[in-house]
Amino acid sequence: MRRQVAAVLMVFSLAGPWVAPASAQAPLPAVPEAEPPSAAAPSPPSYPPEELERIVSPIALYPDPLLAQVLAAATFADQIPEAARWANEHHYLKGSALTAAMAEDQLPWDPSVQALVPFPSVLGMMASDMPWTQELGDAFLAQRADVMDAVQRQRLKAEQFGYLRSNAQVTVTSGPYCEILPVRPDFLVVPYYDPAIVFAAPRRGFVVAGAIRFGFGITLGAAFAPWGWATSRFVWGERAVVLNGEPWRRGWVNRRTYVHPYAIQRHTGPRPAERHRLIGRSPREREAERSGRPPREEHHRRG
C-alpha cells in the first residue's frame, strides 16, 4: 500500500447562488508559447500509462473542482511545504478570517497553491511525499491529456468494482467520461480512500460501501471566490482544465513564464511579521481527518 490518502470535507457557503458553468461551455486551451531553447533545459518526462495511473491514484477520486486545483498546485511543488506549514498553523481560522490572514501575511505562493490553504490535510499529504508531488506536477505539465486519461481509467475501475457511486455528497456521472461533482455546488466533499483497495477487485466478503469515506466540513465565505472555487472544472472531452474561469495554459515549455489569471494580488517582496497565533493541528484533529470524522476544534483550549 503506497499510503492512505488524506481526506477533507470542505463546505463553501457563498454569499449568493453559485452556479457552476457547464463543462461544454469552457474555452479550449491555447497551445503554450515555447521558451527559448537552452542546452541546459531538462527534457520533459514521459510516463507510461501504468505509471500515470499510479501517480494519479491518490487523488483520482477527488471531486473535479478540487482535483483541478491540486493538479495545478503540484506544478509549483517547491511551494507546497511552506504552504502546508502555514495552513497547518492557521487551520483554526475559517472563512473571511482565513482570507484576511492570507492577505495580511502576503502569501507569496501561486494562487493555485493558496487555493488549497483551507485544506491543510491535502497540503500536508502533498508535503509529506514530495517525490510524488513533483512527479504529479511534472506529469501534468508535460502530459496533461495523458494524466486526465489516467484519472478516467482509475475512476472507471473504482466505479466498476462498486466503490465509487453517487451519494448524499457527490454525484458520479458516467459515459463517456466519469465526473465527480458536489451534489450542491457550494458543498464540496473530498473522499478518504486507500488506492490499494478501491482500484482493485474487492476480496470475498469485503464491504465496498465503506471503502470511500466522507467526513467533516468547514464553512467558508464568499471571500474565497477570487481563488476560482466557483469556476474551476474539467472539460474532459477536450482534455482541458479551467481554473478561475480561464483555461489552464501552463505546460512544460512555458512553465517558467506563463502566469495564469487570478484576481488576487500576487506578492513578491518581503513579507510582514506574522500577526496571528500559530497553532498546529493536534494529534486528535489529525486522527479525525485520517479517519474521515469531523474534528473537534481544540485551538480555543490553548493559550
What is this structure, in a nutshell?
Helix 3 runs antiparallel to helix 6 and helix 7 (130-142) packs across helix 8 (144-160). The protein is built from ten helices and eight strands. It has helices at residues 49-56, 64-74, 80-89, 95-104, 111-114, 120-128, 130-142, 144-160, 195-198, 283-290; strands spanning 10-12, 170-173, 179-182, 187-188, 219-220, 233-235, 240-243, 246-247.
Helix and strand arrangement:
Elements: E1 10-12, H1 49-56, H2 64-74, H3 80-89, H4 95-104, H5 111-114, H6 120-128, H7 130-142, H8 144-160, E2 170-173, E3 179-182, E4 187-188, H9 195-198, E5 219-220, E6 233-235, E7 240-243, E8 246-247, H10 283-290
Parallel strand pairs: 1-5
Antiparallel strand pairs: 1-4, 2-3, 6-7, 7-8
Helix pairs in contact: 1-8, 2-7, 3-6, 7-8
Radius of gyration: 19 Å
Number of helices: 10
Average of the residue pLDDT scores: 83
Helix and strand run: EHHHHHHHHEEEHEEEEH
How many β strands by DSSP? 8
DSSP helix fraction: 25-40%
Task: Name the features.
303 residues, alpha+beta, three-stranded mixed sheet, three-stranded antiparallel sheet, 8 strands, disordered N terminus
